[in-house]
Design goal:
globular, alpha+beta, binds coenzyme A, Aminopeptidase, 157 residues
């Protein structure tokens, strides 16, 4: 696909589209890296209102291809890149890379010297390609399931 990727700020109307990308990315892409029970425990959004509140509470961005949401990411006030999810039908097109560039631009503007993230097994190679290193492997509990992920960081300046 040669359609251009554009990045825009997350808006109040983006909750449903981002929930769909979140659930589908986990169920269809991360399925190769976790058991079905782990995927089911992770791919849940019980409270859509809380989701919408969280997304709007921090700088966040939507990647679009021909006006259609294709991925999203964000940056919390303590320099955590909390979310990085790309639509399963649009993997490997550079969408996460474009989102990360936008997150990094914001971090630079805010004077952060470091961004950290908790990367899934699926996302770890992506973040490594983009200059992050693993600080530690950790186990997180989600709805009764234990999932491995990686605390990673990238330093600037
Ligand atoms: C991880 C994820 C966000 C990457 O999105 P993407 O748009 O496909 O990534 P990009 O196309 O920008 O890839 C950037 C680079 O990372 C590499 N990369 C991405 N995923 C990779 C993988 N699973 N294994 C190896 N390399 C990978 C690409 O090859 C590319 O390298 P290159 O530019 O040198 O060729 C996407 O796979 C995803 O949504 N995964 C499921 C949800 C998830 O686990 N999210 C993270 C939660 S912490």
């Amino acid at each position: 696909m040669d359609e251009p990727i554009s990045i825009r700020p997350y808006g109040p109307g983006d909750a449903d589209a981002t929930i769909e990308i979140f659930l589908r990315a986990i169920r269809e892409v991360s399925l190769k890296d976790y058991s079905r029970a782990q995927i089911e425990a992770w791919a849940q959004v019980e409270d859509r209102g809380l989701w919408a509140e969280r997304r709007i509470s921090r700088p966040a961005w939507i990647a679009e291809i021909v006006g259609r949401p294709a991925g999203f990411s964000d940056l919390t006030s303590d320099g955590c890149l909390d979310m990085m999810f790309v639509h399963p039908e649009l993997q490997g097109l550079g969408i996460a890379s474009r989102l990360l560039s936008r997150v990094e631009e914001e971090a630079l503007k805010l004077g952060f010297r470091r961004i950290h993230t908790e990367a899934s097994r699926t996302a770890r190679p992506f973040f490594e390609r983009r200059g992050f290193r693993v600080i530690t492997k950790q186990i997180v509990e989600k709805r009764g399931q234990s999932l491995e992920n990686f605390l990673m960081e990238k330093l600037y300046g």
